[in-house]
From TrEMBL:
Protein name: DinB family protein
InterPro entries: DinB/YfiT-like (IPR034660), DUF1572 (IPR011466)
């Protein structure tokens, strides 16, 4: 596999995972009413609303601003201090828009941009490291949101309905 092929595959798989998590979060949000969006399991935890604001902030700072080489205007503390002010539909729209913009930056990243090291939040990452961080971070918080919904609603979210997860690997 030449470099161009594996870079394209890496970027394609990264965008796929971003979109996959967005669909999962959308399913989760369908289970919540407006009050539950801002409900916290306890004082040490965040509401789904906080996590959605946080994901938008993180994705914007790492992908859109850093990898996309635009100004970083993130106000991270505000993501966790919010106790309302955004409806479920506005939060979902904000997330979908942020992920869409980030996916465009990812799809259009050059090899040079992916190998360039930059500082984000005081950490030094290559463009590849930035993409890996965002995909991992998005998945991590998607899992937290799903777990909270399952606890709150005592319901399987059906992420893999119609898929045989017991199927063995094929080579």
């Amino acid at each position: 596999m030449n470099q161009t092929t594996w870079i394209g595959e890496f970027l394609s798989q990264s965008v796929y995972r971003m979109d996959e998590n967005t669909v999962k979060i959308e399913k989760c949000l369908q289970e919540l009413n407006e009050e539950e969006i801002w409900q916290r399991p306890n004082q040490s935890s965040n509401s789904v609303g906080n996590l959605l604001l946080h994901l938008c902030g993180n994705i914007t700072q790492y992908i859109i601003a850093s990898l996309g080489e635009t100004e970083d205007n993130r106000q991270r503390d505000e993501e966790f201090q919010a106790t309302g002010g955004f409806s479920k539909s506005v939060l979902l729209e904000k997330l979908v828009s942020t992920v869409s913009k980030a996916n465009e930056v990812i799809k259009n990243a050059s090899q040079k941009n992916l190998l360039q090291t930059r500082s984000v939040q005081g950490f030094n990452f290559s463009g590849i490291g930035i993409v890996l961080h965002v995909v991992e971070h998005y998945s991590y918080h998607t899992g937290q949101i799903a777990f909270w919904i399952k606890l709150l609603k005592d319901k399987d979210l059906g992420f893999y309905d119609g898929v045989d997860l017991n199927k063995k690997n094929e080579f």
